Amino acid sequence: MRNSFYWKMAADSIRKNWKMYFPFIISCISTIMMTYIIQALSTNPGLSEIPGGENLKTILSMGYFVLILFSTIFLFYMNSFLMKNRKREFGVYNILGMDKKHIMKMLAFETFYIAVCSMIIGLIAGTILNKVCVLLIRQMMGADVALGFEFSSEAVVWTLSFFIIIFLLILLGNISQIRLANPIDLLKSGNVGEQEPKTKWVLSIVGVLLTGWGYYIALTLQSPISGMPYAFLSAVLIIAGTYLLFTTGSIAVLKILKNNKKYYYQTSHFIPVSGMLYRMKKNAVGLGNITVLSVGVILLLSIAVSLYIVSGNKEADSQYAGNVISEVRLPEDADETGEEIKAKLRELIDQTASETNNTVTDVSSYTYLNLVTLAADDGFEVTKDAYSMLAKQSPASLYLTDQESYNQLTSDNVSLDENEVYVHGTDDEYTKDTLSLMDFQFSVNVMEDMEEFSLDNETTSLISDTYYIIVEDIETLRQIEQQQKEIVEDYAASTNVSTQISLEQGADEQQEIEFGEQLRSHMEQEGMEIVVVDSRTEAASDLQALRSGVLFIVLNLAVLLLLMTVLIIYYKQTSEAYDDKERFSILQKIGLNQSEIKKAIKSQILTVFFLPVIVTGIHILAIFLLMRKLMILVMINQVNLFPISVLIAFLVFLIVYVIIYRITARVYYKIVH
Amino acid sequence: MTLLQVQHVMKVYTTRFGGNQVEALSDVSFSVDSGDYIAIMGESGSGKTTLLNILAALDKPTRGSVLLNRKNIVQIPEKEISAFRRNNLGFVFQDFNLLDTFSIQDNIFVPLVLSGKKHKEMEQKLKPIAEKLGIEHILTKFPYEISGGQKQRAAVARALIADPELVLADEPTGALDSKSSDDLLQHFDYINAEGQTILMVTHSIKAASHAKRVLFIKDGNIFHELYKGEMSNEEMFQKISNTLAILAAGEDGNA
């Protein structure tokens, strides 16, 4: 046969199967578009110029791999639906005398058409959207908005090569399926009688238990950040439980309904219950998929909404009281009190100020030691276990400072005797009279209004219990440091001198950054052990970049997952409609009228549709606390807005879901009718 | 007593793109008495199926009327037609039309469930019918687990369960092997002997030879009619084949 014949045939068969092909092409276009945008953004030279842009690019390129992975799985899944519905057609061709070789050739041409179309449209749409995204990101990060045509040839090459590989793999998969099947199998595939599934009580109970266990972990986990493996375990348990519950639990429930003769033998229950039971085996995995995807969509959307809320509120971010902060580690030598270093720092700050034409209005330094411990009966225990990811008990974070530093920092005038400490807990106050810490025994004075001097106080206090402790003098502090070094060795914390420098009002961002850089180079020259030198501007734009990067990827993934959910539902409903067509025509012949058919269809679709939504809602409720704890990382002190984000995300999801329901119900009815 | 009266039924199909009109039935009249067993024969395209669809209220005639118990089923409004079909007619199809989603018992129950009957009543009705048709042992099985003959007997049970006035059978032996066919026809004979009116459309001379009366349709008209009377099945068989030969030859014959 001539090639032109294949061209025509391939084009014809796409046109004829448009109902099936359309969603597939849409998924191709959108995955190509999204991968292109992410890739183009991560190589965009303009982004490196704005503060924090480099961070953003790193995050984007990580997201790129996730996206490619998802796209591949997704397109394969969509293709399997497509092939299932087309096998019969291939069987007819085969019997009419088309060789398998010819069919494969036709498939190859079809794939070629789809690949070329979706790549062209995907790249054009991607280029346009890419521009929009760049503008959005620039605006979010507060950089100047420059208009111009953005086209990344590098991204085009990468995206095209990835998708050519994906399309080739799909084609190879299809060809091998055809090659292995005989024509009669092809003809019959699609209407293989499925046996009524058996009830598996044990597995149903296991499903309930797994889900319950996952919920339990999610609800009781104290710190998802240090207990990351547990959070992960919880997710795996819930997902496994969901699939088990859908595959075995739903069958068990339907069987119970069926065995209740009074309920079952009623017009409105008879047809839907038997219909669902009949194909629950196939159905259940689909419902499980939809549920897991829906949970994913809602979580990602809620993160995106949270990030959006937070990024609109720049002022609340500033963790720094001063314009520039520096932190220096004290030398190991236990006799070192830090006075020298503090004095030297003053000098350097003054020098930097005069060099950069800034006026320093305030400098405050303090010495502190941050220990991670486990709460014990009579105080705190310093142990390596506190650093373990699998620790049963969530760690307590101690910020220790000496009274001189504290008085300097706050202009208070506290005075302590030997072996006496002031303690302040951020969540709960310390209740005991004595505090033992390794070999030290202190008598405790609670000080509720103590200044929480740690720089990232808002974050840490939300993640773990935090206590601020003032000890008598720097020597005590250094002794504590020495002793914990012996116990926890590699994890040991050091005593640092933290300095906040406030510049004269009116110093702009540029001056701030310049001051910070200059100070850093001076400190390096002096051989100081620098922990950090940072300006408020830099910190803020780093954070902003992190947020907009995460927001962007999260939103992208959310859209991709949502698209997957929608298309899976669409394919599932249409392929089921073809299965049900005959069933309903028989029922009609026996004496079921149109409105009864409509009612039966409605009740069946309604269950199939809203069962996953209900389960999704329950899952979300169960993991909400865990998510909230994780979101502290991004939302910091605005985490109380998280429930609103979840609510918005759920609503958005629900609206899309209901629209899909209406569309597919109509398509279903049209096919069956 | 006359159960069914078909009066001057005509059916004209218009092809989808207008223009051509095809006359499937031109002028068909006959009547069926209560307890009758009628076979309608004819070649493909003679209008058999169209006639059956009209009798089953699945299709409306272009002209003419169909009276079942003196009620014109042509005029029954769309809303009530399904209920009417359920309560007055029983169907047996060539390809059984059992639902794979239901067990045999549930398949037989379908008309009763649709009519909103109580489960207890269904069980009571099922028992004698299942016994009569010899399907008690397969009631819990599914259609894909049993043989064609068993399926068709299950379909007959479904047709009988609602005590219909008239059982309509469309090529009931069409998909069965000869042994299952004989068996099914035997059951039809018993059922008819108990007073059930049966109207069957068939190609099979053997099937038709079991009927009390055979109508021959050709080109949309009733062409001939045979009464079995006291004849044996074999004699009837011979007579039907002769008639068909004449029918095929296109001559007007008087048997």
Topology:
The complex is a heterodimer of chains A (673) and B (255).
Chain A: H1 3-16, H2 18-42, H3 45-49, H4 53-96, H5 100-140, H6 153-180, H7 183-188, H8 201-220, H9 228-259, H10 261-264, H11 267-278, H12 280-311, E1 324-329, H13 339-355, E2 360-376, E3 379-381, E4 396-402, H14 403-410, E5 420-425, E6 434-437, E7 440-446, H15 457-463, E8 465-471, H16 474-488, E9 495-503, H17 509-525, E10 529-535, H18 536-590, H19 594-635, H20 642-672
Helix pairs in contact in A: 1-5, 2-4, 2-5, 2-6, 2-18, 4-6, 4-18, 5-6, 8-9, 8-19, 9-11, 9-12, 11-19, 12-18, 12-19, 12-20, 13-17, 18-19, 18-20, 19-20
Chain B: E1 2-14, E2 21-33, E3 37-41, H1 48-55, E4 63-68, E5 71-72, H2 78-88, E6 89-92, H3 104-114, H4 119-133, H5 148-160, E7 166-170, H6 178-193, E8 197-202, H7 205-209, E9 213-218, E10 221-227, H8 233-249
Parallel strand pairs in B: 3-8, 3-9, 6-7, 7-8
Antiparallel strand pairs in B: 1-2, 1-4, 4-5, 9-10
Short description:
The complex is a heterodimer of chains A (673) and B (255). Chain A is an alpha+beta fold.
Defining key terms:
heterodimer, A: 673 residues, alpha+beta, 10 strands, elongated, B: 255 residues, alpha/beta, Rossmann fold, 8 helices, ABC_permease_BceB-typ (chain A), transport (chain A), transmembrane helix (chain A), ABC transporter permease (chain A)
Could you describe the 3D structure shown?
The complex is a heterodimer of chains A (673) and B (255). Helices cover 68% and strands 11% of the residues of chain A. With 673 residues, chain A is an alpha+beta fold. Among the domains of chain A are: 192 residues, no CATH class; 183 residues, no CATH class. In chain A, strands 2-3-6-7-5-8-4 form a seven-stranded mixed β-barrel, surrounded by four helices. In chain A, helix 2 runs antiparallel to helix 6 and helix 18 runs antiparallel to helix 19. In chain A, 42% of the residues are buried. The model of chain A has no long low-confidence stretch (mean pLDDT 78). Chain B has one domain: Rossmann fold (3-Layer(aba) Sandwich), CATH 3.40.50. The model of chain B has no long low-confidence stretch (mean pLDDT 87). Helices cover 38% and strands 26% of the residues of chain B. Chain B has a six-stranded mixed β-sheet, with helices on both faces. Chain B has a four-stranded antiparallel β-sheet with strand order 2-1-4-5, with helices on one face. Chain B is of the alpha/beta class. Chain B has eight helices and ten strands. The interface between A and B is medium-sized, with 26 and 34 residues.
